[in-house]
Write a structure and sequence with these properties.
2 copies of one chain form a homodimer. Chain A is α/β, with parallel strands linked by helices. The first copy, chain A, has 13 helices and 12 strands. Chain A binds a DNA duplex through helix 2 and helix 4.
DNA sequence: TTTCTTGATTGAAAGGTTTCAATCACCGAT
DNA sequence: ATCGGTGATTGAAACCTTTCAATCAAGAAA
């Protein structure tokens, strides 16, 4: 009748096995210190009673949690789930669980998750900061939590980070569009405060400014999903024909897919009337209505390196701060006439 | 110099504020029981000292964790992340964090996560069981953990569950293809042991068997991603022309996208040469190379209902077992000639 | 037989929070 | 001046595991 009989503790095991709690603990944590006979006996009792370690007590005693926390910007974006998966796999190898929180770009939710992780005393933290959480991160670090920033640079050698060169990515995209002969470019994405958006835009602008007669219009969105892309595209479609861009650079692939959808719906041909390039090169980019050109980020590598840096920091909290910047690459497909 | 000075505890706060630990605890948990003066004072001290609750100790004392665990089949599949997001949002409203584990269809990893959640004494568990974990779930339930099964039925009124009628979904898909005049159908997906695959296939078979001259070929895959879809399609392409299907029903949209890609690459026209229908209706289905027909599962609802059932069970562990079966709907797009 | 050595086992303390019965201080009523 | 009552505060106990100094047992060496 499912009576939630109180949980079995080491004490119960000890009593049932006729040994001390210390011995039970040794069986659990240092079996080599225990004589084979008692080891077998206690193990049997553990199984029989269905004893399960209470992780809360273990942590309390240990002072910290083996788990690692990660705050991810948007679980609906395959880019981030791929990175998270890379992290999770690396951590699983060393037996550390990953606790995933989804901030959805919302500073409030980001803060809520940081609170949670702080209360949980996680041993490490992976963050792609959205709000101005640096002071928060400093406090966590000073308290002994390893912190690694993912997909964003941090000045001043304060934190280890892995990032992809977004400025260069922005350049690659714009360069490609300009090479193809486009001159009226538009950049769709936002909000502008997001570092990645800002850098990709700046990179693009630098390239555009270097070419005579080339222009770049910035259409700011408040999120980075397909819906935002659709709305951004509609805004561009509403322009008088002579101002309408002949090439669109979307801040990520989800936005690009939305743009693509809106343009197709409006009867425009891609890439003949308007070329489109995205960013991230998620798996879906290749199988879009018109296969999408994109700036590829090495996302598995991003996750793996992030995990590696974090583990190094957990090992040696006073070790050197490491900064890794990975290179993006251009992937040309149909949507820009590939 | 980042000296990881030992964490500030209630005791430290009490000492600094000149009150007892009991009062500090009251400030934290029952502020209405504390006089306004002390409340203000203690709160100030908490801020000044940067005190953060130690969740391990709190849980130890409370006996259970507020968090809820969820084991998800495949984080790379937007269907599951959408469901998870629905769950997370419902839980956030009542201040419960969600700990997400990704089994990747692997029974071993599923077990690892269940172990973790059990050690963590989570107050509830959402599972889409992949292996034969029913005994495990029973044990957890008997121990007082609320358990709700997601996206799968369970016989015998043992567990509350939310599922979508997969048999009917399979029927809808096959019916639609048959209505369009197709007679040589193929079903791509697997492994066959997965309940959802089995039911969708069975539903399709029932419809096919009811039509004279209609056939259904089962191409079994070992996973459910785009790669599996591509390989499945290649297998079909290798058949002699007269045996080649004129319509393909994929067990989910990722597989369908892979199939679509392989067929397009091989120069076949969709839907003229071969029609394709997927399952789930993830957001990407609509923006595929050729917009994909699909059987839509109400995934946000699935997540919300799952959270609701779980919370009800946490409230009243001895309440009645609730079984909810949601209806899938057919969404017709270009890939079947919509 | 006694003393050493070694390996196995013990048991109490510590870790931080919450709970709750007990105490305290104070005010109004008698 | 005393009593009762009320609201605020206290402090010890409990939650479960791990650690480590101390003890014990048994066999080897003297």
């Amino acid at each position: 009748m499912a009576s939630a009989s109180r949980s079995v503790s080491v004490k119960d095991v000890a009593a049932a096995a006729g040994v001390s709690v210390g011995t039970v603990s040794n069986v659990l944590n240092r079996p080599e210190k225990v004589s084979p006979t008692t080891l077998a006996h206690v193990t049997a009792v553990i199984d029989r009673l269905g004893f399960i370690r209470n992780d809360a007590a273990r942590q309390l005693r240990a002072g910290s949690n083996r788990a690692v926390g990660m705050v991810v910007l948007d679980v609906a974006n395959p880019f981030f789930t791929d990175v998270a998966r890379g992290v999770e796999e690396s951590l699983a190898e060393v037996g550390r669980p990953l606790i995933l929180g989804n901030s959805g770009q919302d500073p409030d939710r980001e803060r809520t998750y940081l609170d949670l992780f702080e209360e949980q005393r996680v041993s490490g933290l992976l963050v792609s900061p959205v709000g101005s959480v640096l002071p928060r991160l400093r406090r966590l670090r000073d308290r002994g939590t390893a912190v690694v920033v993912v997909d964003r640079r941090v000045e001043g050698q304060e934190f280890s980070f892995v990032a992809v060169d977004d400025l260069r990515g922005g350049r690659l995209a714009a360069q490609h569009l300009l090479d193809r002969g486009h001159r009226r470019l538009a950049f769709v994405g936002g909000p502008a405060e997001i570092t990645q958006v800002e850098l990709r835009l700046r990179g693009a602008r630098e390239e555009v400014d270097a070419v005579d007669g080339a222009t770049l219009r910035f259409v700011e969105t408040d999120t980075m999903d397909a819906g935002a892309g659709r709305r951004g595209a509609e805004e561009l479609l509403a322009l008088p024909a002579e101002e309408r861009p002949d090439a669109i650079f979307a801040a990520n692939d989800l936005v690009a897919l939305g743009v693509l959808q809106a343009l197709t719906l409006a009867g425009l041909r891609v890439p003949e009337d308007v070329a489109i390039i995205g960013y991230d090169d998620i798996d879906f980019a290749a199988s879009a209505a018109i296969p999408l050109s994109s700036v590829r980020q090495p996302r598995e590598q991003l996750g793996a390196v992030a995990a590696e840096l974090l583990l190094a920091r957990i090992e040696d909290p006073h070790g050197p701060v490491t900064e890794v910047v990975l290179e993006p690459t251009l992937v040309v497909r149909r949507s820009t006439g590939g």
